[in-house]
């Protein structure tokens, strides 16, 4: 796109090129292997670029059709699937999860205490109210991950092996049912296996495997032909890889194995996708549920999902690790901006986003009619590049 056309879209062409120069410089400095980036406004792609290496070991150059592990960018896709069933009257957001997953009855909350010598123990107490479908979607279920901080509950999660790709969905739920909750349901935002539970819920209600359900209801209708839970052999040469050791932190980098079908299809983080495939999904969100004549969700449902669902919960943001951060609440699958200030990066009230563990990130700004996607495989650097890319995109707006 020439500079005059870019200017008409409200961007400075020169400033958009600053994105390329900055990310390329970091690639040249061997801080990250490579990345692909896309910026769209008013429904048109105004900037897209691939820089660096798809596979830093083999030297394969990055391409716009490189396949990435999107990890938690799976969550918005599964959340949309759940809301499709809500629209069909198959379930209510206020329904207790145990209505559909009876293994999760009689859950207990782990309360950590310490004696005078500092010895910690975990006491179990019954839940005051059942976990709801809404709690799973907005991460107030009381569930957690075994990462993002330390606690006796997280230790129990790590020891359990929960989320093992060799487990079945039923085995996952049975293991989860034996673990304590980190918080009372409906009180505190805590990043967790909640969307994995939603994936199992979709399987139980539909009678289909999660991959088949998502393919039939979302991926095929939207033309997302290169998104799924594994990559077929003939396309595996396109998979993006990370540095074996992060050059900044020195940490060993271990990513999931996408070259065979896992037994457990993680609704919270198991999918692979490409820049243009995820762009189609994000455009559907931006268009309030519709893409190219295909309607996935109603306009009101999509707006409901992209609204803050934490505002009436006084303890929601008091957890040890509130990942949406200052200036953001959380909706049904996305972080949602609630103020112009407070956050580390520019944006608009009502913009919504989410990201993935290995370095993937997208956001939609309805006020600016802007959509942007950044994909890389460098988990140790994910926080830095989310902020950097967002700053550079907004700096290019006229």
Features:
single chain; 398 residues; alpha+beta; Beta-lactamase; Methane Monooxygenase Hydroxylase, Chain G, domain 1; 2 domains; two-stranded antiparallel ribbon; globular
Brief overview, please?
This protein is α+β, with helices and mostly antiparallel strands. It has eleven helices and 14 strands.
**Tell me, what's the shape?**
globular
Supply the number of structural domains: 2
Task: Classify the oligomer.
Answer: single chain
The CATH H-level homologous superfamily of the largest domain: DD-peptidase/beta-lactamase superfamily
Relative helix content = 25-40%
Largest sheet: 8 strands, antiparallel
Total DSSP E strands:
14
Q: Class by helix and strand content?
A: alpha+beta
How is the largest sheet built, in terms of strand order? 3-2-1-14-13-12-11-10
Report the total helices: 11
CATH class of the largest domain: Alpha Beta
* Alpha-carbon distance between the two ends: 16 Å
Secondary-structure element series: HHEEEEHEEHHHHHEHEEHEEEEEH
Strand percent estimate: 15-25%
Mean pLDDT: 95
